[in-house]
Structures are given as C-alpha cells and as structure tokens.
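ok trying this again, last paste got cut off
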Amino acid sequence: MAEEAPLKPIREVLLKIRNAADAALKRIDQPPRGFSVQWVCTSCRYVKTFVKPVDLDVVGKCPRCRSSEFRIAGQGRG
C-alpha cells in the first residue's frame, strides 16, 4: 500500500487529461451550429441531403419548387 500513495496524484492528473481530451474530441466531431447534412425546403418539404454538414449558403435552390428557403432537418417549423 505504501507504493500506491505516490501513484494516486499521478492517476488523478492523468484522468483529468483524459477527460479534457475526450471533451475536446466530442466538440471536434460535432458540426458547427448552422450546419447540417439534411436541409428541408420550407415551401414543398423537399429534403436535400449532403455527404458532409454544409451551411445554408451552400444549399442553393430547391430542385422541386426552386425556392431558396430551407431549414435544418429535424428542427421545428419556424
């Protein structure tokens, strides 16, 4: 047990580093706010899907009704 006492502070520091790294990786993996893989046309409800999350500026016009009004899929109306 005498050998475990010096290791306890080192273990605590390593756990803090691991937790900080895990939190940073989770933030990196999430797309920025306002970006989505799926956008829904507010006029005709056509769903435009992309391979990567994109900003509204990239979405362009709806191929069905030519509207340029989209919202992120899965969000409430409005």
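PB: full thing came through this time. The mean pLDDT is 85.
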